[in-house]
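Justification of resources, computational component.

The compute hours requested in this renewal are based largely on the per-chain cost of generating structure records like the one below. Each record pairs the submitted sequence with a full structure-token output. That output is archived, and it is also reused by downstream analysis tasks.
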Amino acid sequence: MKSFFNLLWREFIHGGHLQSLSVASITYVSGFLLGIKTDWKILSLAYLIFYPIYINDRFKWIKLDEATNPERTKHIKNYLRLGPKIILFSILLLIILLINIGNLKLIALSLSILFLGFLYPLYFKNLTKKIFAFKNFYVAFFFAIVAILPALYKSQPLANVLLASFIFFVFVKTVLMQILLDCKDVQEDKAIGLLTVPVKIGREKTIKLLTVINSLTVILFLFFSMVLIGSFPRQMIILLLVIPFNLFCYYLAKKQNYYGYILISGEFILWPLLIMLAKIMLL
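The structure output for this chain reads:
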């Protein structure tokens, strides 16, 4: 039984589920901000858009990952031959769900993200050899754009100050997250010529810089949202607890503890949990 749960844990961490659940969490928080009830369909949609992208990326770069992510490589090799079938099945589930929802705008956005996500390891990742930190901004754009899914789902207008503010916040937070994740791949990225922040200024300086920028980002987002946006939910203030969580992740990363990178990858999952806690506390 213990080995079974260990297998499930490794699959959750290494199989793209952690990142896909993070995207679903962003969708939930966006719905909460806009006063939209996020049911299982829209949360599953967010998950299924990104899962085939991430699992395809795992299969595509398995040889390069072996040096910096040996545990992930070992786990993925267990079902490497099933890769194409897993990807096709997850895309099939996505298409079935999109047909069931029947929203043309959602269909267009979902398939566009999926298509561009598959292009990333084939073409766009190499642009980071020419454009500094390109992959960080590329990934952040798609994480941030997910915030509009609830509004599209319920056919609400996208011209919303609260939504725009949240999209920008998610974008910046994702960039910072991706920069930290680059710290574990410095040697690999340097070897293939990627222009990442840690490659340019070093791992330690990168972590110090992130410590300052991340804390300021959270504080400024919450402060200006409370002051300038009258409909900003007060439960969101609990996201201040994200700051000590991030500092702990940075501490682990500085000590070259792999769990620092795992925890930061799951930060967005923490957001809805904190909001649910705040809702209970404010009843």
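The radius of gyration is 19 Å. Residues 177 and 264 are 7 Å apart (CA to CA).
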